[in-house]
Structures are given as structure tokens and as C-alpha cells.
Design a protein that fits this description.
single chain, 5-stranded mixed sheet, two-stranded antiparallel ribbon, 204 residues, alpha+beta, 6 helices, 25% strand, 33% helix, elongated, binds zinc ion
Length: 204
């Protein structure tokens, strides 16, 4: 199975008068994040990690910051585009891990809700998404939220490949051959001679 890894990083500055959007949820906080879109630093980092895993560029390739169409846009749109790029390249998500770096608000009480929302947006199970947070100790960056994200992805097995595999096995005899080949390759069990399942005398 072919696997790939992608990495994403983003940062946004705090700004008064806008809602704080993180992981597709709105948090109760006096300030939000400045940005051309809704400033969702977590979704932006995941978007870049997914695009990076299939070498499809980055968020700015698809959504230039100056484009008025993305002014105050819901960052779920960016994530959706990255998912489409991933699927077009023939890959699916194995898991996502993220670390937010911010002085406030505390993330642990709401990490569960954020994980559920991100898993929903990515169409994966909850245990495939991890969201962690740290305070920016010693960085003098209390006015900034940063996020790092990694995405592991795997190639999706083509339905056509499965179909052709099933077409190969047309008879009981062939099935036995396939099983014996597998056994002999895995366990070194020598192949036995398979007797015909019909009596050759009966064939006229
Ligand atoms: Zn951003």
C-alpha cells in the first residue's frame, strides 16, 4: 500500500471585533483572528497538509489572499477543495495530527467538539483526527495563533483492480490453486497435485 505524508503550517494574529473560528467551530473569546477569510488557522494548516501530501501546491495556489471571493470565507471551503485534490490523486486520509500554539483560550475543554467537527468535515472517524494545543512559552507570541498539521494518506485501491481479481477466479479449481499458491508463498507449504473434480472417463 502506497502511503504519503503531508505537512502544513499557518499563523494568524488576534484581532478585535471578529469571531474566533478554530477547527470549523466558533469559540467564546473576546477576539478573533485577522485574515482574508475567517482566519481559521487550524483548517488552513490541515488544508496545506492534505495538499502537500499529494504535491498539489498550497492553499494560496487555489485561493489567492487578494481574491474578493474569499473575503470572510468559511475555511471549510478550502478544506473541501483539498479533499477533492486528494481524492482526484487517488488517495484517502489515514490520520491527521495537529498542534495549536496559542496563549488563550484554553483548547482542552473544547478539543473534543473541534475534533468531531473536523472529522465531520473530512468525512473520517473521530479517532483519525487529533487536536493538541500548547502555550507559546518563551516565544513572546501571545498575540498570534500558530498551527502545525501532519496528514498521513494512503492510495485507494481501485474498484477496477478488485473486479479484475475476482474475474480471475472462475472455478473451484482455480480458487484452490490460488489458495495453495498463497499458502506455499507464505508458509512454504509445498503445492499438492490437485486431482480433477470430475471423472475423465465420463467425458465422451
Ligand atoms: Zn491562514
Amino acid at each position: 500500500m502506497e502511503t504519503r505524508i503531508g505537512f502544513g503550517y499557518d499563523s494568524h494574529e488576534f484581532k478585535a471585533g471578529v469571531p474566533l473560528r478554530l477547527g470549523g467551530t466558533t469559540l467564546d473569546h473576546p477576539e478573533g483572528l485577522a485574515g482574508h477569510s475567517d482566519g481559521d488557522v487550524l483548517l488552513h494548516a490541515i488544508t496545506d497538509a492534505l495538499l502537500g501530501a499529494v504535491a498539489a501546491g498550497d492553499i494560496g495556489t487555489f485561493f489567492p489572499p487578494g481574491d474578493p471571493r474569499w473575503k470572510d470565507a468559511d475555511s471549510a471551503i478550502f478544506l473541501n477543495l483539498a479533499l477533492e485534490e486528494l481524492q482526484n490523486a487517488g488517495f484517502q486520509i489515514v490520520n491527521i495530527d495537529t498542534t495549536l500554539i496559542l496563549a488563550a483560550p484554553k483548547i482542552s475543554p473544547i478539543a473534543g467538539e473541534m475534533r468531531a467537527r473536523v472529522a465531520d468535515l473530512l468525512c473520517v472517524d473521530l479517532d483519525q483526527v487529533s487536536i493538541k494545543a500548547k502555550t507559546p512559552e518563551g516565544l513572546n507570541l501571545d498575540r498570534v495563533v500558530q498551527c502545525h498539521a501532519v496528514a498521513l494518506v494512503e492510495r485507494v485501491q481501485e474498484p477496477e483492480e478488485l473486479k479484475s481479481m475476482s474475474e480471475v477466479i472462475e472455478s473451484q479449481r482455480q480458487l484452490e490453486d490460488v489458495v495453495e499458491d498463497l499458502l506455499s508463498s507464505v508458509h512454504g507449504i509445498p503445492k499438492r497435485r490437485v486431482e480433477p473434480i470430475y471423472d475423465t472417463e465420463d467425458i465422451t
